Amino acid sequence: xxxxxxxxxxxxxxxxxxxxxxxxxxxxxxxxxxxxxxxxxxxxxxxxxxxxxxxxxxxxxxxxxxxxxxxxxxxxxxxxxxxxxxxxxxxxxxxxxxxxxxxxxxxxxxxxxxxxxxxxxxxxxxxxxxxxxxxxxxxxxxxxxxxxxxxxxxxxxxxxxxxxxxxxxxxx
Length: 172
Hints:
It is globular, with a radius of gyration of 20 Å. Helices cover about 45% and strands about 5% of the residues. A two-stranded antiparallel sheet has the order 1-2. The N and C termini lie far apart (about 45 Å). The protein has helices at about 1-10, 25-30, 45-55, 70-75, 80-95, 130-145, 165-170, and strands at about 105-110, 120-125. The chain is mainly alpha-helical.
């Protein structure tokens, strides 16, 4: 723990002892790259959307601090998924997440086969399965449609019916 903190806190808490850079400086430098398309339209999530997202999620991912696994969530009936939709709607309207869903478990993953010191690992945060379900569903049904309005044909990530193999095919 001490080694990880010494190595990573200066990176993750860069602005605890100094002010954050102003947005205006970032906007002056990178503003021309920020898309100006209208934000996506908000629509309440539906149980079938959560079920569809769960079918695409890896069932073997880690369990978060909320104790739910993807495998368990897949077995829930639509009536329970509707309750999650209601919860997500409340969260989106208020901006307040239940504490149990905000806890992230940090695991140190080795970078190759070198060792387990702080410089030879990378920390990943395992969030709540419900938070991941919400985020993946919103990404698939809202953000992807919005970004199609402004993405160039050179981008293949997070696009419907497109992947990195399409870029490689063009390159080949």
